[in-house]
């Protein structure tokens, strides 16, 4: 029975503890996503989850530990969702379209405020912090999953297509929060369709490559455009 004693099992203490943990996790998910992890304190989490401080620390060593668990629950929900598409025996392009449709639904939903993982990464920029590592681990899995789907269509430049898809996803989720969610969703779906057409065409001639010694011309740099402060 795992770590549960016979007494706990008999009295239901283990079930109550599990229910308290789930209530804390659910409350944290709502508050962390809506307001940010840093802004929400343990006292508020305890009050809104209707548990005691002792119960909180029995299940989570710290608020950051709870934040990692929150991201883990979001990660699991996404894995389950993609798993359901895979279980439906859809072709890889159908799964990719299904992921896109799900993203559009999320972007257009009430209370949407961007990607939970990108938001958490912005709050915890230290790459060694457990919250940041949880974000990186999820994104590595997601990229690997998407790349694998493109590879099923054709192995030619599947890694490029996977990264392109993830960038489309990131951009749409940010634009949907900061701008027009309907336009962001439509742009995402058009982008996915275009990416699928280009990638499928690569499969027609996987041997095609630029002539030896010739590389694509570099893009033209535009000076004076900065999105981050300069270092001192």
Protein topology:
Layout: H1 6-11, H2 13-35, H3 42-49, H4 53-59, H5 63-87, H6 92-107, H7 116-123, H8 130-153, H9 158-178, H10 181-202
Helix pairs in contact: 2-3, 2-5, 5-6, 5-8, 6-8, 6-10, 7-8, 8-9, 9-10
Question: Which descriptors would you attach to this protein?
Answer:
elongated; 232 residues; single chain; mainly alpha
Describe this structure in words.
- This protein has 232 residues and is mainly alpha-helical.
- Helix content is 69%, strand content 0%.
- The chain contains 10 helices and no strands.
- The protein has helices spanning 6-11, 13-35, 42-49, 53-59, 63-87, 92-107, 116-123, 130-153, 158-178, 181-202.
- The longest helix has 25 residues, at 63-87.
- The radius of gyration is 22 Å and the shape is elongated.
- The model is unreliable at 1-13 (pLDDT under 50).
């Amino acid at each position: 029975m795992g770590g549960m004693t016979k007494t706990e099992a008999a009295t239901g203490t283990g079930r109550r503890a599990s229910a308290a943990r789930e209530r804390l996790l659910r409350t944290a998910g709502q508050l962390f996503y809506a307001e940010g992890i840093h802004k929400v304190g343990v006292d508020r989490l305890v009050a809104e989850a209707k548990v005691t401080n002792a119960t909180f620390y029995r299940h989570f060593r710290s608020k950051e530990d709870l934040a990692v668990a929150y991201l883990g629950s979001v990660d699991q929900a996404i894995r389950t969702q993609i798993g359901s598409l895979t279980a439906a025996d859809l072709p890889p392009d159908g799964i990719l379209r299904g992921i896109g449709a799900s993203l559009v639904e999320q972007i257009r939903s009430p209370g949407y405020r961007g990607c939970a993982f990108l938001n958490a990464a912005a709050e915890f920029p230290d790459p060694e912090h457990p919250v940041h590592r949880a974000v990186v681990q999820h994104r590595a899995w997601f990229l690997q999953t998407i790349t694998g789907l493109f590879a099923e269509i054709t192995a030619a430049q599947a890694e490029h297509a996977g990264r392109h898809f993830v960038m489309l996803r990131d951009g749409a989720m940010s634009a949907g929060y900061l701008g027009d969610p309907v336009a962001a969703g439509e742009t995402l779906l058009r982008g996915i369709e275009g990416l699928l057409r280009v990638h499928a065409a690569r499969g027609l001639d996987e041997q095609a490559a630029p002539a030896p010694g010739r590389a694509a011309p570099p893009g033209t740099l535009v000076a004076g455009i900065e999105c981050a402060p300069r270092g001192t």
